[in-house]
Amino acid sequence: MAEILTRTRARNIFYGGSIFFVVIFVVLTIQSHRYIVNTSTAGAPLTEEVVRGKEVWEEHSCINCHSLHGEGAYFAPEVGNVMTRWDVLDDPDGAFEVLKGWMESQPSGVEGRRQMPRYDLSDEDMRALSEFLRWADQIDTQGWPPNEAG
Amino acid sequence: MKYQSQQVALAYIACALLLFAVQVLVGLLAGWIYVAPNFLSELLPFNIVRMIHTNALVVWLLLGFFGAAYYLVPEEAETELYSVRLAYIQLAILMIGALGAVGSYLVGIHGGREFLEQPLWVKVGILIAALIFLGNITATALRGRKTAVTNVLLLGLWLLSLLWLFAFYTPANLSLDKMYWWFIVHLWVEATWELVMASVLAYLLLKLTGVDREVVEKWLYVIVGTALFSGILGTGHHFYWIGTPGYWQWVGSIFSTLEVVPFFLMMSFAFVMVWKGRRNHPNKAALLWSLGSATVAFFGAGVWGFLHTLHGVNFYSHGTQITAAHGHLAFFGAYVALNLAFFTYAMPQLRARDPYNQVLNMGSFWLMTGGMAFMTFVLTFAGTIQTHMQRVVGEYFMEVQESLSVFYVMRFGAGVAVVIGALLFIYSVSVVRSREIIEPGPMQAATGE
B449: pLDDT confidence band, cut at 50, 70 and 90? Predict the structure, then answer.
């Protein structure tokens, strides 16, 4: 094998093979992009409220404690299905009320329990956040998570 | 050290070590918050602590890579750096950006995409620094000798800089956002960074073992070939549950399983080169770190990655402490240990003296590696229990976490060992003691028994 695989051949295989896999990856990415827009996230409209809600989610770096569709910090509960867990997925007003009630009761101050900081959101932002979480919950995630616990 | 301009690497290493200390100390704090959740909870919430821990890690690793490039490219190309001044300007921008980011996190200014929390001005600064670097190092490489080590290193650094452009693209659609976010996160650590790792490792083995360049470079191309062939489509193992099509479950499972191959090859490469090499290089600590890096990377990135990469397994284990276990050992083995191998090799040369504090340095290797291994084991146990209780039985997150507390106490203990090891390492490369703490034994020609 040492004679067949020279350094030059190894180099050519590396460059040629890498280009080949990059091309496949780009094609699959384009297809996935269209699938996301047209199919998996198309169950509910991407409203201005949802867009604002994502910004609220980002400005407070919620992802560095919580996880969202399994990605994040694992220090606090999964929120990709929190609206299902709270049974308010199809109830925008209920979702807003439960989320507001929950966030305003934080931090709990209970000794030995993980503490969520207090975030004073305006009603508008709170509503945007609950709409964002409802929107995230309706994404077709191939059946994940396995159960309501998230 | 043959070229005066290689000296800039010293400043990069110093800054990297500073951020390394920040990273592990803040990591220890995060580990303590898991044990005592009320600690600093109002003043410094966990999300801020974690941001500093991860960001400091990424920046110091990049500083190490840049430093390594500035050290080895002149020697490989057999020419002085194109511009020493530009290299220092680049470092200044990166340090102002890194410290500025930490400062702004502490006052509550941050974006919210994991690992990309930096304010926009810091992101732009990183881009400018990357452009300065690419210009400077490419100009150096072009006017000198071209070797496989520099080709692969520069390709890796060019591609990772280009991928950084995705940091500026934040789609409003969460699933799209996640998909392109992985273009940075996955294609850095499981593709382009592997190019950097393999080329720096090849350089170190070339120097430490004296094996023929032709052999080393052929290995290098084979390793990076398998890294990209598996790693690019291996991105699919992040596309199982984020709203991307179902076929990624098969593409991701198959190709990410193959991601074990480059890490196995790197480990084999390191040991075969040492076996074949006839050179008795005096820097034993650098050799230990080089072999250790390749070995721990194989277990952390390869074995622990495979552990939860098949989609049938990942359906249950996704986003549990299993991921945390894998993440810690993979980063330590592949990128932390590799950088420390390079620092250990380069520091005596940069200070124009024989290798020093080798016993302390090797002690720090075992403390850090032992601590990281222990941490990985306890988090794996915690993750296994979590997966069962939460994903199979369906108990709620917080109740499950409470039953895992004993593992978090043990993880904190492991973290203490890692921090002591890290501080010992920093001491051993920074402070030159007049002699080793243990006298070396006499050289003896031994016959095989």
Answer: low
3-state DSSP of B391-449: HHHCCCHHHHHHCCHHHHHHHHHHHHHHHHHHHHHHHHHHCCCCCCCCCCCCCCCCCCC
Query: What is the model's pLDDT at position B20?
Result: 98
**Any domain includes B74:** yes
Alpha helices in B37-119 (DSSP H): 46-77, 84-106
* Residues A124 and A52 both lie in one domain: yes
**Contacts of residue B48 in chain A, CB cutoff 8 Å?**
61, 64
Instruction: Please indicate, yes or no, if residue B234 is contained in any of the structural domains.
Output: no
At residue A2, does pLDDT exceed 70? no
Say if residue A128 is in the same domain as residue A59. Answer: yes
Domain count, chain B: 1
CA distance B188 to B179: 14
Distance from the A47 Cα atom to the nearest Cα atom in chain B, whole angstroms: 10
Assess whether A60 and A24 both reside in one domain. no
Task: Give the chain B residue nearest A50 (alpha carbons).
Answer: B172
Which residue in B241, B261, B411 has the most chain A C-beta atoms within 10 A of its own C-beta, making it the best mutation to test that interface? B241
Q: For B241, which of A50, A76, A144 is closest by C-beta distance? A: A144
Q: State whether A67 and A129 are in the same domain.
A: yes
Q: Quick check: A31 and B38 CB within 8 A?
A: no
Size of interface A-B (CB pairs under 8 A): 206
Identify whether the C-beta of residue B218 lies closer than 8 Å to the C-beta of residue A13: no
Domain with B60 in it:
1-146
- Please tell me which of the candidates B175, B218, B320 has its beta carbon nearest to residue A10: B218
Give B338-377 pLDDT, tens digit per residue.
999 999 999 999 999 999 999 999 999 999 999 999 999 9
Question: Alpha helices, DSSP H only, in A71-122?
Answer: 82-85, 92-104
Which residues form the domain of A12? 8-39
pLDDT in tens, B249-281: 999 999 999 999 999 999 999 999 999 998 889
Nearest to A73 among B50, B245, B398 (CB): B50
Reported pTM: 0.96
CB contact under 8 A, B112 and A25: no
